[in-house]
From TrEMBL:
UniProt membrane topology term: Single-pass membrane protein
Keyword Cytoplasm: no
Name of protein: Fasciclin-2
Entry's transmembrane regions: 698-731
Chief localisation class: membrane
Subcellular location field: Membrane
SUPFAM superfamilies: Fibronectin type III, Immunoglobulin
Residues in coiled coil: none
Length: 748
């Protein structure tokens, strides 16, 4: 049998393999033959000749390598290549148990480029020497060169290349940029680059700021600490007296990026020195600021005082604050003291006094009371006399003004009223005291004295109790206005009022042929219209008059004998009007209508049966109101009960003359006249109507009738559509009765 020549093949197939330390490595060994079954004892041998076995073998595990079977071959695996693995490795096998096969490969190791100390961001300090660190290692040793911003760096006195970096002499901000550290290993052909960002840092510097700040107590204040540097510095505020970081304290807020210190609700404890500290990677700076807390004024003491009249009074007010309020300064205390001195004090000096303390922080006020003590006085007791009659109780009252309050006692006829008298009662003994007297007889009338006393003196006041009587006879009664049925009187009062004011006047009247026992009376309150109505025309009457006070009526007097005039036409109606102008023109609030109202005049013996209203447009010519021709309108009101009529279809902004006459069967009265002016603009027109407007009763009747018709219509609809409703119920009852009668007949 002729066999082909078998051969071992190692992949990778290079006889020498250069590999970097730390890498993983795999070598495969295969027999190049078609008779795979004739191959045996396929093995790998290390440089010392030991057989390398699988990972379960102790020696292989210690050597850091092992073998694994592969299809058609055997693999040598080195998970982490180390320097000790360098050398010649041999792959061997037997073929047909007679021929020995062998193949070798040389493994050489080298150290790859490694960046041992080359940070990608580095920051020199301005004006200082700085080494841009770039420590790189490799085996074989690498060559290192530098680029700046992508261009080859030219070394000089400013840039000096060192074995582990690039030295920058006295760095400036112009040295900022991207520096490239490039390492090359020629033997292995390895190339590596590290980009290093260089930014020259500048130490922080605090700018101009105030050394002294003033805060106002209770308010919110801020201080700005400004600084520049690269990179942007961080700010810290320190209270120097306590070394406290204010960013961690209550009421304080610190913005570490802007340097803003905010103090909320400043207190007096915030007074002192504060330090602004700025810091970045290049250095620190600090500045001290003195904060003065302005304390708002406070009134410490202001006492109320009491001083008798004619003495000297001194009100003292002490106040605190920072700076001290601008008043009199007492150096022994952190207070300001102000004094108000009043000499020979008067009662009018009594009252409230305001102490005002102020500084730049604000103003404080407080009220203090000065009480002026004085002896009793009855200056404001108006009662000097009192009146009573016929067991009518009366009160005598004394008001004693004094400080302190006085005690009041009562005297009569020189004797203090001590004994109990059921007709004399005392209420209160100061500062108000009332003596209630029920005069049963004449002995209770006379002078009563109230006596007030306090620590500063005594005062007395007398009140005379007099007996009141009815007024005397009326001095005169005048018949002012006489119509056929009425008389208007005026009176000249009685010469003696009886001690009390007149409250009423009365008339007693009768027909002259009758006795006074058949007379009639009429009473009027004082200052009211004294009008007697209901008299008969052409009749002779006797009149007599009397005045009345709280005691009663005086005697009848001032008699009159008068014959009433005959019946005649009514008196002139008095038109009621408002809103008159200076020329007696009445302004209507409406542009097209006016409500005319009047008072019913005296009918002079015959009832009024008609009112006639005439209204005409007028204009003033030579100060005389002249009617426009053929434009007058007349309205007749047949009912005498009318006192209101609405004139309609008037023109806007127009003067009208209105005449009102009353008529009885004797004739027309003289007219009552007014001039009105309608308003500008156009109100909705009011439909004209000669007849009176519908009464409220007629309107209610129409509404009720309408509702009744609607209800009937609804009930009919329910009957025909739904078989419900009142009509349906009535019809059903009728049917049921008829049906019941039929059934009864059938049963019978």
């Amino acid at each position: 049998i002729v066999l082909s020549n078998p051969e071992l093949k190692i992949k990778p197939s290079q006889p020498v393999l250069n590999r970097a330390i730390g890498q993983s490595m795999l070598l495969s060994c295969q027999v190049d033959t078609k008779e795979k079954n004739l191959v045996s004892k396929l093995e790998w041998h290390d440089p010392t000749g030991h057989v390398i076995r699988d990972h379960t073998d102790r020696y292989s595990a210690l050597a850091g390598m092992h073998t694994e079977d592969m299809p058609d071959g055997l693999a040598l695996m080195i998970p982490v290549l180390q320097t000790r693995h360098e050398g010649t490795y041999n792959c061997s096998a037997k073929y047909a148990n007679t021929e020995d096969l062998s193949k070798t490969v040389l493994i050489r190791t080298f150290v790859a480029i490694t960046w041992e100390d080359a940070p990608e961001d580095q920051n020199p300090i301005i004006n200082q020497d700085y080494k841009v660190r770039c420590k790189v290692s490799a085996n074989p040793a690498p060559l290192v060169n530098w680029l700046r911003n992508g261009e080859q760096l030219q070394t000089d006195n400013h840039f000096v290349v060192d074995t582990d970096g690039l030295i920058i002499k006295k760095a400036t901000e112009e040295d900022d940029g991207v520096y490239t550290c490039r390492a090359i290993v020629i033997d292995t052909g390895e190339l590596a680059e590290r980009n290093i960002h260089v930014q020259v840092h500048t130490p922080p510097k605090i700018g101009d700021m105030k050394r002294d700040e003033k805060f106002t107590e209770g308010e919110t204040h801020s201080i700005q600490c400004l600084a520049h540097g690269k990179p942007a510095p961080k700010f810290t505020w320190i209270k120097m007296s306590t070394s406290a970081d204010l960013s961690k304290e209550d009421r304080f807020t610190v913005d570490e990026n802007t340097g803003m210190l905010t103090v909320r609700g400043a207190t007096k404890d915030d007074h002192g020195n504060y330090k602004c500290v700025v810091k970045n990677e290049a250095g620190t700076d600090e500045r001290v600021v003195n904060i003065t807390v302005v304390l708002k004024p406070r009134i410490v003491t202001l006492k109320n005082i009491s001083v008798p009249t004619d003495k000297n009074a001194k009100l003292s007010c002490s106040a605190s604050g920072r700076p001290l309020p601008t008043v009199h300064l007492d150096p022994s205390k952190e207070e300001t003291i102000g004094s108000l001195i009043i000499s020979s004090i008067l009662r009018t000096d009594d009252g409230l006094y305001e102490c005002i303390a102020s500084n730049m922080g604000g103003t404080a006020t407080k009220m203090g009371h000065l009480t002026v003590e004085f002896a009793p006085s009855f200056a404001n007791t108006p009662m000097h006399e009192a009146w009573s009659w016929h067991d009518n109780p009366v009160n005598l009252t004394c008001l004693a003004e004094s400080i302190p309050n006085a005690t009041i006692t009562w005297y009569s006829k020189g004797n203090e009223l001590l004994r109990p008298d059921p007709n004399i009662q005392t209420f209160g003994n100061g500062p108000i005291s009332t003596l209630r007297i029920t005069p049963r007889n004449i002995k209770y009338y006379g002078y009563y004295k109230c006596k007030a006393q306090n620590t500063h003196g005594v005062a007395e006041h007398k009140i005379e109790l007099k007996e009141a009587k009815p007024p005397s006879e009326i001095f005169q009664a005048k018949l002012e206005v006489i119509t056929a049925t009425t008389i208007t009187f005026s009176f000249v009062g009685p010469a003696e009022s009886g001690g009390l004011p007149t409250t009423h006047y009365a008339v007693q009247y009768k027909k002259s042929h009758l006795d006074w026992n058949f007379a009639q009376n009429k009473t009027w309150p004082v200052d009211s219209p004294y009008i007697l109505e209901g008299l008969e025309p052409q009749t002779v009457y006797d009149f007599r008059f009397a005045a009345q006070n709280d005691v009663g009526f005086g005697n009848w007097a001032a008699s009159h004998h008068h014959t009433m005039p005959k019946r005649s036409y009514p008196e002139e109606p008095r038109i009621l009007s408002t809103r008159q102008t200076d020329d007696d023109v009445i302004l209507s609030p409406y542009s097209d209508h006016y409500q005319l109202t009047w008072k019913v005049p005296a009918d002079n013996g015959e009832p009024i049966d008609q009112y006639t209203i005439k209204f005409c447009p007028v204009r003033k010519v030579d100060d005389i109101w002249t009617e426009s021709e053929n434009q007058c309108d007349t309205k007749d009101l047949s009912s005498s009960e009318h006192t209101l009529f609405e004139l309609r279809n008037l023109h806007a902004d127009t003067h009208y003359k209105i005449e009102l006459r009353a008529r009885n069967k004797i004739g027309y009265s003289t007219p009552g006249e007014i001039i009105i002016k309608t308003a500008r603009g156009a109100d909705p027109p009011v439909p004209a109507s000669d007849g009176p407007a519908l009464s409220s009763g007629a309107i209610v009747s129409i509404v009720v009738a309408s509702l009744f018709v609607i209800l009937i219509f609804i009930d009919l609809s329910c009957y025909f559509v739904n078989h419900t409703g009142l009509l349906w119920v009535i019809c059903e009852k009728t049917r049921s009765r008829s049906k019941t009668s039929d059934e009864d007949a059938k049963l019978g």
